[in-house]
Design a protein that fits this description.
The structure is a homodimer.
Chain A: H1 20-27, H2 31-38, H3 46-58, H4 65-72, E1 77-82, H5 87-103, E2 107-112, H6 123-127, E3 134-138, H7 144-152, E4 157-160, E5 172-175, H8 177-190, E6 196-200, H9 206-221, E7 231-233, H10 238-249, E8 257-260, H11 263-275, E9 285-287, E10 304-306, H12 309-324, E11 333-336, E12 339-341
Parallel strand pairs in A: 1-2, 1-3, 3-4, 4-5, 5-11, 6-7, 6-8, 8-9
Antiparallel strand pairs in A: 10-12
Helix pairs in contact in A: 1-2, 1-3, 5-12, 8-9, 10-11
Chain A binds a DNA duplex through residues 12-15, 17, 19-21, 29-36, 38-39, 43-45, 48, 63-64, 66-73, 130.
Chain lengths: 351, 351
DNA sequence: CTGTTAGCGCATTCAC
DNA sequence: GTGAATGCGCTAACAG
């Protein structure tokens, strides 16, 4: 037999690793007992436990996750899908989720959804092919119906930062876009600005619409009439902010402040102002959204609304874990607070 | 028995999914045959293949990866460890690796190595507990010896962007730091700068030292005597660049140009210049490294050296795949080219 | 407290 | 071309 070399040599199968059986034999107990100590079961005598642990350590044994997964019916892996956009935005969420998962002894399987929405393979198939116990779906392109279907299939998942408004009943975590936008606008209003431009994200996105609502709510509360000509649509990328701000500033009666729906576009706005010889914040105030990595780095450092991105990832995990534990999470719509971060891109209106 | 409901209802085990056995029964063939069509084996008649495929589709069957993994001895998962620093830097590599893996039908398991280097659980244990077939280790804290040990254990891995110089024989992918730094310095020299400051990364890191070498090589080639007083150590974060540049600019005979070892520190340098009333690039030229997301966003847009980050991730994957296929990769030290990207933070010296 | 016995879902020899 | 039998490494009843 090849048994005697199991410790040193490639053992029985293809894996070539020490198995629970080896440990059992070495420790002079049954596999069941080894399994017990592995899983910290109470019903094992201290002596045998020690004996087993000794062999485990001596041979550097670790349990084979595939085997355990097959046996238990749980892989200990959760998928996390991300559309590859806005690197530092998703990286932050990723970091939070990954950390939280780690504490649960779980692992994160990254699935990038390039633009495969309309390909033959559905999200569902890709996720639930036995590789993962559940998933966190970031900024999904999928419609409410499609997600409903996924849900109906029994696959546990939670949406992080829903792109479109979602049916109630679909677990989701998002930031308080409306409140954040309101705070940003209030800040501008408080500085005396009355003509405030707004560069939105893609229309139809939940985040975009909520921020618009917050913007308008703030204006309304201050008794300022919203001027439709002061609103431009962007796509969350720098150039769109640049263009949008440019067209705003070239108006006969340009705004004295601009609220951009994210920091990238705010950075674009900063550039547009600079190109026109406008000084920020003296001649123009600019507020962003996200508090991305770049916010403090641009010139001048950007006043913005912080989204708790890592926290968002962590929260998604904890929701998912609850789902995985079979707890039917009812109040599964979590909204995380946002916070205004005042830096140097805003100042009192000077007219 | 509970067999009859297997298709609709939670079947036998905990998973509740359609199994290969269900398909076999439904199609009136054996599991072996189903397995054959699943794996695109040639020895199956077209008719039976069709029959099987029909049932597979009709029931939305997908193979259970855990079961396959256990059977085949391969999980189809590779781990990717990342120290959580410099978000967009690792995000870029991540994106490349993830994409490449996807094309190989493999998945990426993210493992964040907070600062667990000195914890009881070794990288080895964490990675090879049967969860993954191999790993890509980014910017490892582990020493060459530790990595050697991992290698000796037979666990396949490749290092992406080695932090410290690595033994030959350890597969690694990195960027051409030296050449990139040389190109950056050549550029400055070409603009007439002679007093050039350099803000380094953490001393001892491979990237840092290589860039210093490139910097010095360029100077030497131009016959410029290197001035040790013009070199400052940073840590790749903005504040360190800010401080370092400040101290450089406060010199009696300040440099007319600064080459920072990454874009973050270059951004810090930009700020330091601004605080002193220096205009970039008129009074001071600044060059960064990385071509990070922020490079084009700061004021002025940064001249920098582009690292092919996504490509780095992809290359790491292809190396790893070769290792997994049992091909002993010999020439396993890959260095990817870097490229100077000239923007607006550099101009001819004006003295 | 501990050992025996069955599977988990799939791939893989072998026969037929 | 196809089926029956076996095992991958582990957990989970069920006995004792």
């Amino acid at each position: 037999m090849m048994r005697r070399m199991a410790t040193e040599q490639r053992g029985t199968g293809t894996t070539g690793r020490v198995t629970i059986r080896d440990i059992a034999r070495l420790a002079g107990v049954s596999v069941a007992t080894v399994s017990r100590v592995l899983n910290d079961r109470p019903d094992v005598s201290p002596e045998t436990r020690d004996a087993v642990m000794r062999e485990i350590r001596a041979n550097g044994f670790t349990t084979n996750r595939s085997a355990r997964a097959l046996s238990v019916g749980r892989t200990g892996l959760v998928g996390l899908t991300v559309p590859i956009i806005r690197a530092d935005y998703f990286a932050a969420i990723l970091a939070g989720a990954s950390e939280a998962l780690y504490e649960q002894e779980m692992r994160l399987v990254l699935c990038t959804t390039l633009h495969e929405h309309d390909r033959e393979v559905s999200l569902l198939e890709r996720l639930m092919d036995g590789a993962t116990d559940g998933a966190i779906i970031m900024l999904p392109e999928e419609s409410s119906e499609e997600l409903r279907a996924l849900q109906a299939s029994g696959y546990p998942f939670v949406v992080a930062d829903p792109r479109k408004p979602l049916d109630h009943g679909i677990p989701a975590v998002s930031a308080a876009h409306l409140a954040g936008a309101k705070a940003a606008t209030d800040h501008l209003l408080g500085l005396g600005h009355r003509r405030i431009g707004h560069i939105t994200g893609p229309r139809g996105w939940a985040a975009t619409e909520d921020r618009i609502s917050g913007f308008q709510a703030s204006l309304a509360a201050a008794g300022v009439l919203p001027d439709p000509r002061l609103v431009r649509e962007g796509d969350f990328e720098v150039p769109s902010g640049h263009v949008a701000a440019g067209s705003l500033l070239d108006l006969d009666d340009p705004p004295t402040a601009i609220f951009a729906s994210n920091d990238n576009m705010a950075a674009g706005a900063l550039r547009a102002a600079r190109e026109r010889g406008l000084r920020v914040p003296d001649d123009l105030s600019v507020v962003g959204f996200d508090d991305a990595e770049i916010a403090p780095m641009v010139t001048p450092p950007l006043t913005t609304v912080r989204q708790p991105l890592a926290e968002l990832g962590r929260t998604a995990v904890s929701l998912l874990v609850r789902l995985l534990d079979g707890q039917r999470v009812d109040a599964s719509r979590v909204e995380l607070g946002t916070q205004l971060v005042v830096r140097e891109s805003t100042a009192p209106a000077n007219s």
